[in-house]
Design a protein that fits this description.
Shape: elongated
Distance between the termini: 60 Å
Structural class: alpha+beta
Strand content: 5-15%
Order of helices and strands: HEEHHEEHEEEEEEHHHHHH
Largest sheet: 6 strands, mixed
Helix content: 25-40%
Radius of gyration: 22 Å
Number of helices: 10
Number of strands: 10
């Protein structure tokens, strides 16, 4: 038995289950590119953002090296890496899942109060909450909370406990960049306040809920030109409710869910939301 055997055995088991593994060095970092691929000289996987034409036999290009091919995992180049590896990681997006990485007790408390129960895996300092479905990966969506799915890797720490739930809209909505508090204050000063005694009418639950419901219905009723309808709806909602900080992740999730039910992707929803905010100067 070689030093590579325990980690390689784990990797081969994961690969047989459709989970693409890769080796990690000490410090939970992937192996660097080989000399031929340094700084993407090979032309593949530019900036590690999209898989490219590189067919390097080494475990290059970080998350993009993850594979379920047992011949690659057992190759001489990979065996050398496994001998010096400190841990096994995997590409969540390649396995069809999303990992909500909770880094401390406060983040775990937030998840328990906000997210639907799902399969959980204990980590050194917190927990991984694993959902079925993929989305873009985003770091620091909240204090101590990262999302790892497409184009990212997560350390393999075992199968965990519980039943894997479907990726909820509230997690997808975390990928939507919200206006920072620093931007909200000056914007609020330029918006006419129509409520009595200086109160913002957008903070009236019925007023805001009615606006979101109308947006959801508009998207749901779209028979054609769904892309344009989603954008116009986001634009209308943000123009009315986007300047006083009353929109929450839950409101955005309702709109995103309606759009995805009509066949829109998370990427298109995110782009449409961002474009609408930009058009409004938010």
């Amino acid at each position: 038995m070689t030093a590579a055997a325990p980690l390689l055995d784990t990797a081969l088991t994961l690969a047989s289950r459709g989970v693409p593994p890769l080796p990690l060095r000490a410090g939970k970092v992937p192996f660097g590119n080989c000399p031929a691929c340094t700084q993407n000289a090979c032309g593949g996987r530019p900036n590690m953002k999209t898989p490219g034409p590189c067919t390097c036999p080494h475990p290059c290009h970080a998350w993009a090296a993850a594979t379920t091919d047992p011949h690659t995992l057992n190759s001489p180049q990979w065996t050398t890496a496994w001998r010096t590896a400190a841990a096994v990681a995997y590409h969540p997006g390649g396995a069809g899942v999303t990992v909500v990485d909770l880094d401390d007790a406060a983040a775990i408390a937030w998840a328990r109060a906000t997210l639907p129960a799902t399969r959980t895996v204990a980590t050194t300092r917190g927990e991984h909450w694993i959902y079925q479905g993929v989305m873009q990966s985003v770091n620091a969506v909240k204090p101590g909370v990262d999302i790892k799915s497409l184009m990212a890797y997560a350390r393999w720490l075992g199968p965990g406990t519980g039943t894997t739930a479907a990726l909820p809209a509230v997690v997808r909505a975390l990928a939507v960049k919200q206006p920072s508090p620093a931007h909200r204050a000056p914007q609020a000063l330029t918006v006419p306040i129509r409520g009595q005694s200086g109160a913002c009418p957008h903070r009236t639950p019925a007023y805001l809920d009615r606006g979101i419901a109308m947006g959801v219905q508009r998207i749901t009723d779209a028979g054609s030109a769904v892309h344009a309808t989603v954008y116009r709806t986001f634009l209308a909602v943000l123009s009315t409710h986007g300047r006083c900080g009353c929109l929450t992740d839950t409101h955005a999730a309702r709109l995103f869910t309606a759009a995805q039910t009509k066949g829109e992707t998370v990427r298109h929803c995110t782009d449409a939301w961002t474009n609408a905010r930009t058009a409004l100067g938010l």
